[in-house]
Q: What sequence folds into this?
């Protein structure tokens, strides 16, 4: 017996009034849904913006509304599919609901095609300060993050770092109040990237970590110096390779993980797990088998044990 036909799902995440509905409506006005196909639009929250009936009809949108998080079930989605028989699904998620529960409820034939997260630049830092885990969950699975209402007064480089610290693969765009879109925001680094030895301050490790992944070509064959802990993960098979890393807070105090770099060092076996090191190394590239993209790899030139930094946790602000 043949299975059900695959159904592409376009998921919009973000808090109330972050711009999800406006993004969908703009896409409609650009004609991207006027292909004669039926779209099932599942709305999990209603903000100040709405889509009028004429737009919905012109684009063959059929809407269903879910008011209660407990109502999000696979059975409900299957019922919607049976009623509407759509060619694709758009889900406008509720930013206060558990995104993982929603994803788990998708039927097997509902295939996640794209996750888009509009973010209101005027409230982003407030949410980071007061609801960090809930905020970062909005873009945990995103393919595209759009900071709207974004003017020059906002630290767009920091915005991007905060997103990439949680989700390295997402694309980040900035939309100004007049609708102009930018994607290339230069980073003002707190260290001299052209120095003979690039000295990374203890408080700048998070920025350094993100920038090496973002702009690896700027660091290749350069010498860097920074503090990090020794780590010996079981999945690192080479005898002369270990990991130099710092604990970093990506979501909240309960979500601290080591972030760092594989490092070639012949004497790595003699370094105790968790000991703090003063690392001087040359930056090279290695192919990451998970992302199939080049990632930074350190070739140690000098390693010495040292004291822990005043604040051991790295941040991306």
A:
């Amino acid at each position: 017996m043949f299975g059900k036909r695959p159904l592409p799902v376009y998921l919009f995440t973000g808090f109330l009034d972050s711009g999800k509905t406006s993004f969908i409506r703009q896409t409609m006005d650009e004609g991207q849904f006027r292909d004669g196909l039926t779209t099932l639009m599942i709305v999990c929250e209603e903000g100040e913006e709405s889509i009028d009936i004429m737009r919905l009809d012109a684009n063959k949108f059929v809407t269903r509304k879910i008011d209660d998080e407990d109502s999000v079930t696979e059975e409900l989605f299957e019922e919607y599919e049976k009623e509407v028989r759509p060619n694709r699904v758009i889900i406008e998620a509720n930013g206060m609901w558990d995104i993982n529960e929603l994803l788990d409820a998708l039927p097997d034939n509902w295939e996640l095609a794209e996750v888009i997260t509009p973010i209101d630049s005027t409230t982003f830092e407030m949410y980071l300060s007061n609801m960090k885990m809930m905020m970062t969950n909005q873009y945990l699975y995103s393919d595209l993050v759009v900071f709207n209402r974004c003017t020059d007064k906002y630290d767009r480089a920091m915005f991007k770092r905060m997103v990439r610290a949680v989700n390295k693969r997402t694309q980040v765009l900035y939309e100004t109040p007049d609708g102009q879109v930018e994607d290339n925001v230069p980073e003002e680094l707190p260290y001299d990237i052209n120095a003979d030895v690039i000295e990374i301050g203890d408080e700048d490790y998070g920025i350094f970590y993100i920038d090496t992944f973002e702009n690896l070509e700027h660091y290749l064959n350069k010498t860097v110096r920074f503090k990090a802990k020794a780590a010996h993960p079981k999945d690192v098979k080479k005898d002369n390779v270990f990991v130099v890393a710092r604990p970093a807070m990506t979501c909240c105090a309960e979500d601290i993980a080591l972030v760092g770099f594989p490092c070639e060092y012949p004497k790595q076996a003699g370094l105790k797990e968790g000991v703090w090191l003063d690392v001087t190394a040359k930056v090279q590239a290695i192919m990451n088998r998970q992302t199939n993209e080049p990632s930074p790899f350190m070739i140690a030139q000098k390693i010495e044990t040292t004291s822990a930094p005043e604040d051991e946790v790295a941040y991306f602000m």
User: Anything to note?
Assistant: The longest helix spans residues 74-84. The chain has a mean pLDDT of 91. The helical segments are 20-29, 53-58, 74-84, 99-104, 121-130, 132-138, 156-166, 205-214.
